[in-house]
Design a protein that fits this description.
mainly beta, 8-stranded antiparallel β-barrel
Length: 162
């Protein structure tokens, strides 16, 4: 029950943040990430809380691996006012298992529930355009659950705008 409540609350917070962040003066990006917080890949929306290329922001996405729908959500930050910045962040990846049986995937869960979560970090580099254009990032993404920590990587490519 706690996992379902956590999942629902975080999804609602992300949708609230999206509606709050629709001002066009704030940096936004849509990108595809290979690897990263959704393991195999995801489609993501990222935005800054204030105008500019640096500072705090958030990201949410949608990924899929066989029998598992994954929703990565994170708070992140950028250090560097130019096009190239250090990117850092923390978040959770919520998972919904489309099959009820226990498939042996212990990364997200340790019971027979359809829901699970895993915590993740982020540290890497982000390259954004001066105005609108190509977005790129490369990150080390440690995945953390109660059983283990996996060192993982993510590579993102997409479009960024003000």
């Amino acid at each position: 029950m706690i996992k379902k409540l956590t999942f629902s609350t975080l999804v609602l917070l992300c949708f609230f943040s999206i509606s709050f962040a629709q001002e066009t003066s704030k940096r936004q990006a849509i990108y595809v990430e290979l690897g990263g917080a959704a393991f195999m890949g995801s489609v993501n929306y990222d935005f800054r809380f204030k105008p500019g290329n640096d500072g705090l922001g958030a990201r949410f996405g949608l990924g899929y691996v066989p029998d598992v729908l994954i929703v990565p959500m994170e708070l992140n930050g950028l250090v560097g006012k130019n096009r190239v910045a250090f990117e850092y962040g923390v978040g959770i990846s919520a998972a919904y298992f489309t099959e009820k049986h226990n498939s042996g995937n212990q990364t997200f869960r340790d019971d027979d529930s359809r829901f699970g979560i895993i915590f993740h970090g982020k540290a890497g580099i982000r390259i954004t355009p001066a105005n609108n254009g190509l977005f790129f990032n490369f990150n080390c993404t440690p995945l953390i659950n109660t059983e283990e920590t996996r060192l993982w990587f993510g590579l993102g490519l997409g479009y960024s705008w003000h």
